[in-house]
Structures are given as C-alpha cells and as structure tokens.
Design a protein that fits this description.
six-stranded mixed β-sheet, OB fold (Dihydrolipoamide Acetyltransferase, E2P), Netrin_domain, three-stranded mixed β-sheet, alpha/beta, Frizzled cysteine-rich domain, 11 strands, 2 domains, 282 residues, wnt signaling pathway
C-alpha cells in the first residue's frame, strides 16, 4: 500500500535535530529485499539514514526487518511512513525528518504493542529529537474515521487453555462470552528463527456475536501478531492445529480472547458441545 507524504514547507527552514547537515550523503535505490519500505511512495533513499546506518546490505536492510512484526499489526496507519522516513529517508534536495506530532501519534499507538511483543520504545525514536510543524518535516495527515466501529485486537493476558474439556465446560464458555469460533492456527519459523503465526483457512462461527464474517479472520490474525509472546505459549509448532476460541468485545471496543480449546480428533466433547449449542439454553 502506497504511503503518501504531506510536507510542511516554509520559507525559513530551521536546522534538523540530531543530524549533521554537512556530512556527505548519497542516494541509492531502495532494494527489493527491504520489504518494510516496499511501496512507500518513492524509490530512492539517502544514506546514511536518520538512524546512523550507512551500509545498505550489512545494516539498513537487516535492521529494517526488526520492524516488520510491529508494522504487520497495523498499530497506526502512518507507522510505515514514520519508520521509513527514518530507515529510508526520501532522496530530495533537503533532509526531511518526521514531525514530532507524527512521532507522538505513532508512539502512543504502537509503543503498547511493542511492549506486548517484549520490546521498549527505542531511545533512538525519542519524539523530542524531531522538529515541530514550524520546521520542514513530515506531518500527520488528516484522516476520517469509519462509520462502522469494528472490534480491535489489543494486548492482553493469555487466555485460558484447556485440553480435553468436558462438554459442560465448552457450553459454559459459549454462554459466558460474546463469540465462539473455530480456526486453524499455524506456527512456523522465519529465516531469522523467530516464530510466525497465521490463521490457516476460513474461520467458522459457532456463536457470531458482534463479529463480522468479512473481518474476523483478519481480526484474529492481528491478535496473534500483537500478542506474539502469548501466541508462542498457546500454539505448538508443526502442522496447523484446529482450535475453538471464545472471547468478548470490551467496552472500549477491543477484543479479548478468553478461552482456547485445542480440538483434537479424540475430543468428542467439543464436537458434541458444538452440535448441542444450536438448541442449548444458557
């Protein structure tokens, strides 16, 4: 998805913070293997970048991959624009940093997600180092909210996992919570050795509640990306595993998973509970 930048250009340009305007720079093509800044809206970047990286193959490309798990969560619509303006600054006649307000907006949305993944907000991205809108900088564009408020995934404590539950346990979980779905979750390893999780195939509703059919698979996928450490505890490596997931939508609009039942072929109680649910009275 292309990211379109809006620049605040004033006649009087103040020096940029934490960057030596006099140092020698060069323009290079953004390489294809730099996936996080693919389709960012321009094709050439300056080196060194604003994080002090000057070697494209040894520093810029591999370090950019560190941000991929965060960007995949969709924690802020301008997170890619902000990070790529630092990792791969656009090659113009002058240096363009992100505005402080853009940094604050992305930090406030993405720092909790980063913390959930086990990382603090980096000191190198301290928003005080960036210029205000009175200077030349990349600022936060005006956005318009959707008419439909969809449930959103958020960082949470890991849901309870119960192997071989009784039929009553499963039916009680269906009654107590807003929704219940079945989904196959696959865990595999990236070339870096880190685990990655994905929803494999369709998500099927047992109890739909406030969820929407076209959004639920993406919603659960985002939950896995945000709650990466939790997913590592819940999901075993290997083949795709079928699970029954129950959860609720909180008053603030965030989704919370509450129970996770691994559904093995031998678990007849889960199969019976899903059949009885159609006629079950809570």
């Amino acid at each position: 998805m292309a990211v379109f930048f809006t620049l605040v250009l004033l006649a009087m340009v103040c020096p940029l913070v934490a960057f030596d305007m006099g140092q020698s720079t060069r323009c290079v093509t953004i390489p294809n293997q730099m996936k996080v800044c693919k389709d960012v809206g321009y094709t050439e970047m300056r080196l060194p970048n604003f994080l002090g990286h000057s070697n494209l193959e040894a520093e810029v490309v591999p370090r950019s991959e560190d941000w991929r798990p965060l960007l995949q969560t969709g924690c802020h619509p301008q997170a890619q624009a902000f990070l790529c303006s630092l990792i791969a600054p656009v090659c113009l006649d002058t240096f363009i940093q992100p505005c402080r307000s853009l940094c604050v907006a992305v930090r406030d949305s993405c720092a909790p997600v980063l913390a959930c993944q086990g990382h603090p907000w980096p000191e190198a991205l301290d928003c005080d180092r960036f210029p205000t809108e009175e200077d030349m900088c990349l600022f936060l564009p005006i956005t318009y909210s959707s008419f439909i408020d969809l449930p959103k995934p958020a960082c949470q404590n890991c849901p309870a996992v119960e192997e071989a539950p009784t039929m009553k346990t499963v039916l009680d979980a269906f009654c107590l919570h807003d929704f219940a779905v079945t989904a196959k979750i696959h865990r595999h390893r990236l070339p870096t050795g880190e685990p990655e999780f994905e929803i494999d195939g369709l998500v099927e509703f047992i109890r739909q509640g406030p969820l929407l059919p076209y959004d639920t698979r993406h919603l659960l996928q985002q939950w896995l990306l945000i709650n990466l450490r939790c997913a590592g505890v819940l999901v075993r490596p290997g083949r795709s595993q079928l699970y029954v997931l129950t959860g609720s939508v909180q008053p603030d609009g965030t989704l919370a998973l509450t129970n996770l039942f691994p559904w093995h072929k031998k678990d007849a109680n889960i199969a019976v509970a899903t059949r009885k649910w159609k006629h079950h009275r809570c």
